[in-house]
Every structure is written in structure tokens, then in C-alpha cells.
Design brief:
Layout lengths: L1 E4 L10 H9 L2 E4 L5 H4 L7 E4 L10 H12 L5 E5 L9 H10 L5 E3 L4 H8 L13 E5 L11 H5 L4 E5 L5 H10 L7 E6 L7 E6 L12 E5 L9 H7 L7
Parallel strand pairs: 1-4, 1-5, 2-3, 2-4, 6-7
Antiparallel strand pairs: 7-10, 8-9, 8-10
Bound molecules: S-adenosylmethionine.
């Protein structure tokens, strides 16, 4: 059984090992965000099972854990395929624990995380010697009153802030960060559908984020490095000579 990172979306950003294991698998249990182009690398006779959780959706983590154990015990080659890196906000750690408790060995294949690939695909270096010496990656999923994330500490850290799963709660996140002392005019960028043909970039200031025309899946980048954002894909296309040119 393998727990495999599928990277941010572009199939060419899969690791060679991930591509090989997907091609060899009898069963692929995949998240909702794994792109059809990546799933197309599986054998035509492989079972592709979408175990992605949707808001109000059918698969609880408990059911998913049972499915994992069931398939792992089937004797078939099983790949659990997760977006980005399996150990960054992907509950990969919990799934490995469940498998270990069931006595099932699981190999881990790291993936390129959207937290780094998203900014990079928009031309944003998350660290830069002149402006950001540190980067913090945080989930915005639980930005409510009972949020376990200490946003006032996060707001005081300096460096670059990368927020995943934060689009829906961005207004609350901005309020918490500004209350913590982060300047309302701090540069911000949002990279949506990063590394896919649907990639789109929004740039502005922290205070403009609540009203920004943005959608999930997206990575929010807050900090001076956000000013580096540009449509890198368009730039590459503009500088690519036609093959017959
Ligand atoms: C459950 S987390 C999983 C993160 C994943 N393990 C990783 O390393 O990228 C899902 C969040 O990742 C971010 N994300 C994943 N793929 C993305 C993409 N192609 N473009 C922008 N954000 C993405 C979004 O913030 C999304 O809500």
C-alpha cells in the first residue's frame, strides 16, 4: 500500500515514483482535487475510487479509514492518492496511523505541495533575501471563534504567510490578522487552480481580500513577496516560439 502525493494539478509535476505507482496500481483511492489527467495515468482496468470529502458529502474520515484497510487487505496493489503533499493538511498522518494499527505497512511518496507550487506558478518566491526570511503555512479552514490557530501570533510572525483552505473564511482571517497588527495595506495575492489550465491570479492588498473575486481551490499569499505575482504561464507562452517558427 502506498500513500502518494499527486502534486498541485499539472501531471508533469508528479514525481516519477508517483507516476510509476499510479500506472502499476490495481486500485487508486483518490481525493476530489486530483485531476483527470493524472487519473488517466492509471491502467484502464484499475479501479478508480473517489473518496474525496465534499461539504455535506458522504464520506466521513471513519468510513474512508475502513475503506483503506479493506482495500489494503485485498492483496491488490493499492495507491491512496492525495493532492499536493500527503502530509500537508491532507490527513495523511491520520491515515498512516489507522493503517499501522491494522498492521498494514504503507510507503510514503512526497508530492509537490500547492503551498509552494501555487505561489511559484504565479512567479512569487515565498522567501526572498531582501523581503522575507521565513514562510508560515497555515490552514484557514477553521478561522472561527473556536479556531485552534493562534491568528494573533501568526499576524506578528513577519515573513510570508501562505493560507490554504482559506477562501471562504477570508474576511474573518483578514480581521484577525489586522487586529494582530498586520498592516491592512500588506500586499496579497491569491493563486487559484494553480498549475492547471484554469489557473487565475488575483493581486491586491490585505484589506481588499474580503471583496476579492476569488474562488477555491486557492492559495492566499500575504506579505511583501506577493508583489512579485505575475501571470507566469502567459509570460512563458508569450516567450515560447511556435514549434515550426
Ligand atoms: C486539504 S488541503 C490539501 C493540501 C495538499 N496536501 C497540498 O500539499 O497542496 C486543500 C487545499 O490546498 C490548496 N490547493 C490544492 N490544490 C491547489 C491548486 N491547484 N491551486 C490552488 N490551491 C490548491 C487549496 O487551498 C485547497 O483548499
Amino acid at each position: 500500500m502506498w500513500l502518494v502525493g499527486a502534486g498541485p494539478g499539472d501531471p508533469e509535476l508528479l514525481t516519477l515514483k508517483a507516476a510509476r505507482l499510479i500506472a502499476e496500481a490495481d486500485v487508486v483511492l483518490h481525493d476530489r482535487l486530483v485531476s483527470p489527467e493524472i487519473l488517466a495515468l492509471a491502467r484502464p482496468d484499475a479501479d478508480l475510487i473517489d473518496v474525496g470529502k465534499r461539504p455535506g458529502g458522504s464520506h466521513t474520515q471513519g468510513v474512508l479509514n475502513e475503506l483503506l484497510v479493506l482495500h489494503a487487505r485485498s492483496g491488490r496493489r493499492v495507491v491512496r492518492l492525495k493532492g499536493g503533499d500527503p502530509f500537508l493538511f491532507g490527513r495523511g498522518g491520520e491515515e498512516v496511523e489507522v493503517l499501522a494499527e491494522a498492521g498494514i505497512e504503507c510507503g510514503i511518496v512526497p508530492g509537490i505541495s500547492s503551498s509552494l507550487a501555487g505561489p511559484a506558478a504565479a512567479g512569487i518566491p515565498v522567501t526572498h533575501r531582501q523581503v522575507a526570511r521565513a514562510v508560515t503555512i497555515v490552514t484557514g479552514h477553521e478561522a472561527t471563534d473556536s479556531d485552534p490557530v493562534d491568528w494573533s501570533a501568526v499576524g506578528r510572525l513577519g515573513g510570508t504567510l501562505v493560507v490554504l483552505m482559506g477562501i471562504e473564511r477570508r474576511a474573518a482571517i483578514v480581521t484577525k490578522l489586522v487586529d494582530a497588527g498586520l498592516a491592512a495595506d500588506t500586499p496579497a495575492a491569491v493563486v487559484m487552480h494553480a498549475t492547471t489550465p484554469r489557473q487565475r491570479i488575483w493581486t491586491g492588498r490585505l484589506e481588499q481580500l474580503p471583496e476579492a473575486d476569488v474562488e477555491s481551490p486557492a492559495v492566499m499569499v500575504i506579505g511583501a513577496v506577493a508583489t512579485f505575482a505575475h501571470d507566469a504561464a502567459a509570460l512563458v507562452a508569450a516567450h515560447t516560439l511556435p514549434l515550426d517558427g
